[in-house]
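tool_call predict_complex ligand=EPZ
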Amino acid sequence: MDKLQITGGRPLEGEVRISGAKNASLPILAGAMLAEGPVTISNVPHLQDVTTMIGLLGRMGVSVTINERMGVEVDAGGVTECFAPYDMVKTMRASILVLGPLLARFGKADVSLPGGCAIGARPVNIHVAGLQAMGADIRIENGYIKARAERLKGVRLVLDTVTVTGTENLMMAATLADGETVIENAAREPEVVDLANFLIAMGAKIQGAGTDRIVIQGVKSLHGCEYTVLPDRIEAGTYLVAGAITGGIVRVKSACPSHLDAVLLKLQAAGATVGQGDDWIEVDMRGRRPLAIDVRTAPYPAFPTDMQAQFAALNCVADGVGTIIETVFENRFMHLLEMRRMGAEIRLEGNTAIIKGVSRLTAAPVMATDLRASASLVLAGLVAEGRTEIERIYHIDRGYESIEEKFASLGAQIRRVPN
Ligand code: EPZ
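tool_result ok
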């Protein structure tokens, strides 16, 4: 397994182009199965999770090809089996997103339960309960969700917890249901809106995406379309924090500032000068040490849990004491245990981390545990004295396209070495 070697101490300067959003590409690829014609999806990032989803679709008989403009062409006309096996689902929980489309389009789906992951139990009970309320016959047997439905019925759903993929699965299922479906307490993430816009381009009738109440009028069938995925706000936020933590100046291009309001406010609170245009954002922290900030994660538009680890790294070298409260997942502080080994002063109290900034971290061999934790260890390595080695970086490759090239283009001393 490869590892990353990072020599810290250099302020980052320059600009990077942000790739398409992983967390929009995955539901959109799954949702393409709903169309009776071919679908072309552009700006899909080249990531391990996307490769896994494409592999899962291909295994079911869906034709997936990459065209000369790197667009992904999907045609579900030849689906041979509605089956998502454990050996694929266990490597990527987002495989659960094929459940709604398969059930709505083909009337059946056998999908492995994803099981937990490093950051939490991550149940899918809300996905299952919503489909059952829509009339699906669902049995959980031998670790699989076995779902059958002649045709789903439109109903009013009130989701117990705000769930991004739960909202997405149920919204996709509702597009072909008989009648109107209302999803109350829906997730409002930009990726949910992007998926809704994609489904609308296929002929779906959806209103309210981006609010906590989404209304879908079921239609008989959906047609093919061409669609371009929105920029990855978490990738953009990660590079902006890299500029702040190293005391440099970083601009992210092909980004969407309005999707990062909560994050940009926190960067300003940390002392950064934040500039923005229609499709770019710039953070300038030259000559300054970040100020410690307090963060509490919550569903969009509040501060995103996927940016929590990155800001924890920022607090580790900030001036003052900052608190991080993680309210979405029950075990998303593992990166802090690794940062302690780099000299960070961190106290953990349940879902709260109290971090007292130190003037310098010191390099150490560390281990990535999950996608965003890995990114935060890269950020810590960028400011640590010496050369940090990060193991198990397959976690990073799941969500960050060409990470070492992009960081190197900003002046980072970073390279990938075989373990
Ligand atoms: C999505 O995961 C993202 N993944 C995650 O990004 C992100 O951290 C998360 O939303 C929160 O924003 C994708 O979009 C592919 P949830 P998801 O369902 O949908 C509970 C990354 O780094 N819950 O919104 O799986 C759950 O336990 C990844 O890119 C239930 O109880 O998260 C959690 O506490 C990590 N029952 C809360 O809801 C359910 O049926 C939010 O989880 C579903 C969820």
